[in-house]
Fold Putative amino acid permease.
Amino acid sequence: MSVPAPVPNLKRSLRRFDIMAIGVAAVISFDVIGQIAAGGGQAVTWIAVIAVTFLVPYALVFAETGAAFPQEGGPYVWVEVAFGRPAAVLTTMFYWVTNPVWLGGSLVFVAAAAWDGFVLPLGSGTVADYAFKLAFIWAAILTAVVSLRRGKWITTAGAGAKVLALAFFTGTAVAYGLQHGFRGLQGAGFAPTGVGFLALVPVLLFAFVGFEAPNAAGDEMLAPQRDVPVAIGVSGAIATCCYLLPVLAILSAAPPGRVTGVGGFMDAARLVFGIYGDGREPVLTFVAVLFVVALLTQGSAWMIVADRMQAMAAADGGFFSRGLGAFHPRLGTPVRMNLLSGVTATVFMAAAMNLAKGDASAVFGVVLTVAITTLLLSYLAVVPSLLALRLRHREVPRPYQVPFGTRGFTVATLLVHAWIVLGSWVALFPGTLEQLFGLPYDFRAVWGVSRLTFEAFTLGTVALLLAVAVAGYLTQRRRTRSRDEGRETGPAR
């Protein structure tokens, strides 16, 4: 088995708690909590279903693979060993680019809306709005640039802020319900429907993937074989609670139809924090600041891991220049790839600002779908690679194993892959399955833009990424071939 060469200058500093904190910081998404809650009571039902039928098998197979193959680059290495470099390059491109797209689209829009509504007014499309979004993007990038030995504490603080804000909000919502009655739950409608399922499945899958992300820093873990399975299990349980309980709290307090994706969490906080009387506004401001900090560190957590994956692809000869894969000799971080992520996020933010002529809700929904699509598409290769490694490389020691051996691993992998295929299709072509099954679907009412605008943005992004990935691979391959030919035809000694 051949794996990419190890990276020099890396220092092992990630303990079990650090791995778990990075997972929590990266996976629990404030920006999707409102989007999930907008699905009503059945969102709770589908969270429970997907937690059992998707998250559990997902955690099992990634825990085994992450412990058995702990090399730097994580999923890039897995796909490269299983299916070869071209497949790994394409997969990593989609995995990596999701994060600057997400940072420059969904995360920064939610953060700006919270800051504008609860801290200081920014307006929409103003100089202050642009300045805030640029500062947010580059603060997230700079926290990924610092050495992991120090940067891990930033993501740990973000994970703590996230759990603290969600716990405080949930506790306040319970107190509000005890005082005013849980009226929102009466009309929430927990019975599952086909329309609700197809609307929620992509965003719920997006909310629950990513626990393998810390494996991108595998050579910086102290004991990955021992710590990865435990960290995935604990962070998965925390994530389930951090989605299920706040969504229930939002539904219990907010009237039906009032919850929106872009403002759901903070709008519900404004309502339930009324129990604090005159203290509501300072408490809201405090929670809004926690909210923005958590969003920022969530972006930086993903940059820490995804930029390492893409840097490994570049260093391995799969993306334009090997120089993009260089790790800073002192910091031990892929600074050039970090900066490329920042530029990409900035460009995408500017494009998103002009997508729907200032309609923040429509912009949020479409750019979040772009991020969902690119990430889920990457798992179309990552998940099968786990099974390929299990079947082809039985000689590799596996400190942790999925129950029932290869048969259990195979069933779990096929189940996870089926969910990913479904989520990818629904995210890329919304409304098509509804039409196939005769379910009602008004595209403009759902998305706030026409299908042409939506598909131009989503399919156009996917097509552009495919072109960039292929160009990056072929460019580096041509350079390598030319260099090898130059050596062969050089002067004889």
Q: What stands out?
A: The chain has 18 helices and no strands. Residues 16-483 form a domain with the Amino acid/polyamine transporter I fold (CATH 1.20.1740.10).
